[in-house]
Design brief:
The complex is a heterodimer. Chain A is of the alpha+beta class. Helices cover 36% and strands 23% of the residues of chain A. In chain A, the strands form two sheets. In chain A, strands 1-2-3-4-5 form a five-stranded antiparallel sheet. A four-stranded antiparallel sheet of chain A has the order 7-6-8-9. Chain B is 19% helix and 21% strand. The chains are: A alpha+beta, B alpha+beta.
Chain lengths: 279, 1010
């Protein structure tokens, strides 16, 4: 059998095989090619991965900020209607009433809206068509609150609690899984003009709008972190200050390494900011 | 046979191809994802762009409106703050010259081809409004099949239509305003490109190559980035249904004057039970609570502004958040709203709004401004801002009852001393110009002085008639202002105790529902049976409460201060000496009576039960014991028949009211009678000669001397008669009638009663110091109607003794001139500005006002229907309300130079006298002042001409004209045909803008979801 096969092979093949050098060179070239291709593929993969992460974060933030903008455009700006732009150390919450449809059976499009960062460090939006909002039930949205005063939006704790009690956990839906930080500052009008302030103005008339900043971390980067590390990342993005917009506060620290947090995660923290004008 | 090396090459090829496929797949996947997200981002960006475009467009429209304000005004800039006073009544309202408002009552303007937001006279000739709109109708179809139908334009349901569809009739769709990089609006005469060449350079075109709205070259400022169009509605001419609607109970149902008393049943489109059901829903917490305590949320709470809803425990009122909410409500409550009677879709929505605001500040200006009567909107505080930031709330009068010293001083300039108030801001009432230097807000009396025409004050009857007794202070305008102020206070407070205010050494007393001294008869009689030649003289007072609701008034004391004596004379040189001066003792000088009479008609005091008097002060005449003040006994020889009573120097009469056990306080003084009362009837005990006042409530014009008209010899004069308008049983002024500035028909006698008419067509009248004859309360009397003197007449004065429910109720207050209350019914009124200076509402910005220049008759009708004609029944009928509303709408919509829009609340009086008067049919309504004023009372406090309430319906589209488009000049509608719409946004902006400052008072922006 071997012999018969041999008879079909070209003569040159029988004259000599591959030398060791040839094999080594060939293997070397092949290895080089494989390495180069691997690097190329890795590079492309890394690039597309980063792009995907950025696109995901951008898209998520855009959706969230657009949604917030639409809700704020329909916000009830009345002296007898409460709202709460509440600032905490760390993530803030934004609650208000808007003429938009939420979860519920009332036919009147009047809902309590809330934005907050949940325990998993994701941005939730709550929307509940409030009880008694239907035209058949003569109960106003803030009937149970006392001393509602448009001129004092700082002490609206009552309204905050009302908004929260109006919104049960079931009314919340995660609006963006990537967003881990929500911070806002006030746009305040005073004698000197319009300025950014961390504290609310004494009168609602002087509130011109909000500067809202969010920070996003894509799902893959999140997978590298623990909840504690997410908290650490969020805490690294400082709270609002007078005279500075959110972006200028966060830009020096966003994406920078944090002790104990994988750099692959911290480097993918992305920050966004938008201005909303209320009046 | 395949060579071995060929196999190897094939493997390499496969490997390479595999890598290529892999790489291509990755790249394609990456780019497809990127493109997808780019599209998403682009959409988001378009929304952001169109949002910015729409909001910028709104600012442009607002800017144009402000330009309209400036062009229609005389601007006065002080310290950088400008006040825009309308050039005429034509420019006090938004320009609507391009709209047929008979067909479209709510529409003011649209973005229309070749039209500006204002044009023509009387706008300032140098002010040219920008013409922005192109000739592309919004109903035209764009390149990607987008258009705005007429039905969509009528989404607010404010346009008239004649069918059952939303599509309006008699309405031309707005034109698009093209927004380019460099301009807002292109137009055939505009700054960019003319004719149809704006889309690109056609053959033969000249000019820069980079021009054209399709050319995205960075240097091309004509590149179009979007377009917008708008309509502007007169939302102020609608009923703000967040306020309007009458929930008053039956006993209060005739109240009108504020928008929450409007009768919605006149609005087309409500079902029979619709108004009630709507109000039950909307005012679930307030209900029919008519509480008038400030801050407590009742329907008459002066602090209640309806911008916020009321709450009671866990219940609350309701409100419509915006127009979309209102429309949805109407559509979802068929039990309250229907298509009937007109068959239109939801016709009620053409008359209803959910937004109204007014800067609650005055804007009246006199024809000839002076320091005393300035242009109120333009009077400045020390820092150059407008001094009058808010109409003076009438509810502050209650502070006087509460005696909150700091507030009374601040708002009234009064301090309490003993039982009376003392005006402490100087020896005179300041003008507003003087107040400016004091760096405080003007008080109640200073505002009265600023608002009441100075030329109407301080009228005296004494000048030229030296012997006519009159207080020397009658000519002091400030005292009359103080008197009017006291009268207003006593109309408002619930007690019947006159308010005393002192300015220096002078005092004024507010007029209450009390008897006043109208006449003092001089009577003589022989009371000593043993000596018939001894004659006693008496001054016998006659009191009268000239008000409609005259009633017994508790304990009243009449005092005579000073002395007089009796004289008997004849032609003989030997005259008996006069009597000793009398009265001699305090007891003799006082008469006290307690609930003895209502004094509804003039009544000479008699010794009825409850009357306390000195025994010397009575005289029995014809079986009746009359009570008066004896002036002494004299010898009266038989041939001595000329009797008279002469003052020692002078004497005065004081009327005092009892205050519990703390004594008496004066409320009316007839001062300084220093003239002899002569020509007493020769027959004893006859009432034929007297001093008489032109009006018992005022000392103005002093004491005229009178005799009973045509008194037969030996007859008793008729007592208990009012001062009639005609001679029969009336009183003739014998000698000392006021003359200076008075006109008396020499062919007739001086009937003081004529002054209660004071018409220049009557036989007796006077002109005010400024030469203007201003009619009195009886100006329109006819037959038995309208006379403020007649017994039980509906034309008689009223004392409310309750808080004012409308600023129009100020007209119940006595003006301190004979039978003149504050005048809200004649064109010559000097008091009309009070309607603009004062208000029931106590807020700087209020909701619930309507533009009296509305084209919607039904809106005015809702305020008028059911309004009380004179403080109680009867009320305005549907026919009357309709006639009045129609007359006003016709007047304000008339283009005649003397007619047209009302400038301010005062014009309700000075411009509409004929209109309102002509709308009445019954004599009782035509003739009686309070009834003629019922329309003013119903409309004054809700009328708003100062703040424009507009609704701007704006649609904005981002998009572009594709590069390279080359439409031919003859193509139809190229601006629509080639425009590619990328984003669209619609806003309804409810805008309240102060016509006098340009300030945005309030605004509400609705994002319209469609």
């Amino acid at each position: 059998m071997a012999r018969s096969m041999k008879s079909y092979l070209p003569a040159a093949c029988f004259r000599r095989g591959f030398t060791l050098v040839e094999l080594l060179v060939a293997m070397g070239v092949m290895s080089l090619v494989v390495v180069m291709l691997t690097n190329l593929i890795n590079g492309v993969t890394l690039t597309t991965d980063r792009s995907h992460r950025r696109i995901d974060a951008d898209a998520g933030a855009r959706v969230a900020l657009d949604r917030l903008g639409l809700d704020l455009e329909k916000m009830l700006q009345r002296p007898d209607v409460d709202y709460a732009f509440h600032k905490y150390d760390g993530n803030d919450t934004i609650s208000f009433y808007a003429t938009t449809q939420g979860y519920g059976t009332a036919s009147r499009p009047l809902s309590a809206i809330a934005y907050l960062i949940n325990g998993n460090y994701q941005l939730d939006r709550g929307a509940r068509t409030i009880a008694g909002a239907d035209w058949q039930t003569p109960v106003f949205v803030s009937a149970s609150t006392q001393s509602l005063n448009r001129t004092d939006i700082v002490n609206h704790d009552t309204s905050i609690s009302e908004a929260k009690t109006t919104l049960a956990a079931i009314d919340y839906q995660t609006l963006c899984e990537d967003i881990l930080r929500l911070e806002f500052a006030y746009l305040v009008k005073d004698a000197a003009g319009v300025r950014i302030a961390k504290d609310a103005p004494s009168k609602f008339e002087n509130l011109r709008g909000l500067v809202v900043g969010v920070a996003a971390l894509d799902a893959r980067s999140r997978a590298m972190t623990t909840p504690a590390q997410l908290a650490q990342i969020a805490a690294g993005l400082i709270d609002a200050q007078d005279g500075k917009d959110i972006l200028s506060l966060w830009d020096p620290v966003a994406g920078k390494p944090l002790a104990g947090v994988p750099e692959a995660a911290t480097s993918n923290v992305r920050i966004y900011q938008r201005y909303y004008f209320l009046q | 046979m395949i060579p071995q090396n060929s196999h190897r090459r094939g493997v390499a090829l496969i490997l390479v191809l595999s890598f290529v496929v892999l790489a291509t797949t990755l790249i394609v996947a990456f780019f497809s994802r990127s493109i997808l997200h780019r599209q998403v981002a682009s959409t988001s960006g378009s929304q952001t762009r169109v949002d910015i475009l729409a909001q910028s467009a709104l600012e442009i429209v607002i800017g144009d409106l402000k330009q309209e304000i400036a062009a229609g005004s005389t601007a006065n800039t002080v310290g950088g703050i400008t006040i825009y006073t309308p050039i005429s009544n034509r420019t006090v309202a938004p320009y609507d010259g391009d709209i047929n408002r008979t067909l479209q009552p709510n529409l003011l303007k649209t973005s229309a081809f070749s039209k500006a937001v204002f044009s023509g006279t009387p706008y300032a000739s140098g002010s040219t409004a920008t013409i922005r709109a192109s000739n592309a109708l919004t109903t035209g179809t764009s390149a990607n099949q987008r258009f705005i139908s007429l039905g969509r334009w009528n989404a607010p349901l404010l346009l008239s239509s004649t069918g059952s569809l939303f599509t309006p009739t008699n309405f031309t769709a707005p034109h698009w305003i093209i927004v380019t990089r460099g301009n807002v609006g292109i137009h055939s005469t505009g700054p960019v490109i003319s004719g149809t060449t704006f889309l690109g350079r056609n053959t033969g075109d000249t000019g820069p190559a980079d021009k054209g709205i399709h050319n995205p070259a960075p240097s091309n400022t004509d590149y179009a980035i979007g377009r917008f169009a708008y309509t502007v509605y007169d939302e102020g001419g609608l009923l703000d249904v967040n306020v309007a609607g009458n929930r008053l109970g039956a006993t209060d149902n005739d109240r009108r004057g504020r928008l929450h008393q409007a009768d919605l049943s006149v609005i087309p489109g409500f079902t029979t039970t619709g108004p009630t059901d709507l109000l039950s829903w909307r005012t679930a917490a307030t209900g029919t609570n008519t509480d008038d305590v400030a801050g407590e949320g009742g329907l008459f709470d002066p602090k209640r502004d309806f911008i916020a809803v009321q709450k009671t425990g866990t219940n609350s009122d309701q409100t419509f958040f915006n127009r979309q909410d209102l429309i949805a409500y109407v559509k979802n409550t068929p039990s309250q709203f229907s298509d009937t009677p007109t068959g239109l879709r939801y016709p009620a929505l053409q008359y209803l709004s959910s937004f109204s605001r007014e800067k609650n500040a005055p804007s009246w200006a006199p024809t000839s401004p002076t320091t005393t009567n300035p242009k109120l909107a333009d009077i400045r505080a020390k820092n150059n801002t407008p001094m009058l930031k808010q109409r003076f709330p009438l509810s502050r009068i209650d502070l006087i009852r509460l005696e909150t010293a700091a507030d009374v001083l601040k708002y009234f300039g009064l301090e309490k001393e003993s039982y009376y108030w003392k005006y402490v801001h100087g020896s005179a009432i300041n003008t507003l110009d003087q107040v400016k230097d004091l760096e405080r807000d003007p008080n109640f009396f200073e505002l009265l002085k600023a608002a009441i025409l100075a030329g109407s004050l301080g009228k005296s009857g004494k000048a030229g008639t030296a012997s006519l007794p009159e207080s020397a202070t009658g000519v002091l305008s400030d005292l009359q202002i103080l008197q009017i102020g006291a009268n207003i206070i006593d109309q408002y407070d619930i007690d019947n105790l006159p308010t005393e205010i002192r300015l220096g050494s002078e005092a004024v007393y507010g007029v209450e529902n009390l008897p006043y001294l109208v006449r003092v008869f001089g009577v003589h009689a022989a009371i000593d049976p043993g000596d018939p030649n001894k004659i006693n003289g008496w001054l016998q007072p006659e009191l009268w409460n000239p008000h409609q609701q005259a009633t017994t008034s508790g304990t009243i004391r009449l005092r005579m201060v000073g002395q007089a004596h009796t004289l008997v004379e004849n032609d003989s040189p030997s005259q008996p000496p006069p009597s000793a001066p009398a009265p001699l003792t305090t007891a003799d000088a006082e008469i006290t009576f307690n609930n003895s009479s209502t004094f509804e008609n003039p009544t000479v005091l008699t010794a009825v039960p409850g009357t306390i008097y000195s025994s010397t002060n009575s005289i029995i005449l014809s079986g009746t014991t009359y009570v008066g003040f004896q002036t002494g006994q004299v010898d009266a020889p038989a041939n001595h028949t000329l009797y008279k009573i002469e003052p020692e120097v002078s004497y005065s009469f004081y009327l005092d009211y009892a205050v519990g056990t703390s004594g008496y306080r004066p409320y009316s003084v007839w001062k300084n009678i220093n003239t002899a009362l002569e020509n007493l009837p020769a027959a004893a005990g006859k009432h034929g000669a007297f001093f008489v006042k032109a009006d018992p409530r005022t000392d103005r014009f002093g004491a005229s001397v009178g005799t009973v008209y045509n008194l037969a010899a030996g007859a008793d004069g008729e007592i208990g008669k009012t001062i009639r308008m005609t001679g029969a049983n009336g009183m003739t002024i014998a000698s000392h009638a006021p003359t200076s500035g008075f006109t008396w028909n020499p062919a007739t006698n001086f009937f003081l009663g004529l002054l209660s008419d004071n018409s220049s067509t009557s036989d007796g009248y006077y002109a005010d110091p400024d030469g203007v004859v201003r009619r009195a309360d009886g100006a329109n009397w006819t037959g038995a109607e309208g006379l403020p003197l007649s017994p039980a007449s509906a034309g008689r004065a009223i004392v409310l003794n309750r808080p004012f429910r409308s600023v129009g109720e100020l007209s119940y207050a006595f003006r301190d001139l004979p039978f003149k209350s504050l005048d809200f019914f004649t064109a010559q009124s000097a008091d009309a500005a009070l309607l603009d200076v004062f208000s029931v509402d106590d807020n700087e910005v209020v909701a619930g006002r309507i533009n009296p220049n509305t084209r919607n008759k039904q809106v005015l009708q809702a305020m008028l229907l059911g309004a009380s004609k004179s403080g109680a029944a009867p009320t305005l009928s549907s026919t009357e309300a309709d006639a009045l509303a129609q007359a006003i709408v016709t007047w304000t919509g008339n283009s005649a130079p003397t007619q047209g829009p009302l400038l301010n609340r005062a014009d309700l009086v000075t411009k509409l006298e004929t209109v309102i008067g002509g709308a009445w049919t019954a004599d009782a309504d035509k003739a009686n002042k309070t009834r003629r004023e019922s329309a003013v009372r119903a409309l004054a406090d809700v009328s708003n001409t100062r703040t424009w309430n507009l609704m701007i319906d704006l649609i904005a589209q981002t998009g572009r004209y594709p590069t390279g488009v080359r439409p031919q000049p003859a193509e139809t509608d190229p601006l629509n045909k080639y425009f590619v719409v990328e984003g669209e946004r619609r806003y309804w902006l409810h805008l309240a803008i102060d016509r006098y400052t340009g300030e945005i008072v309030d605004k509400q922006l609705e994002l319209v979801s469609q």
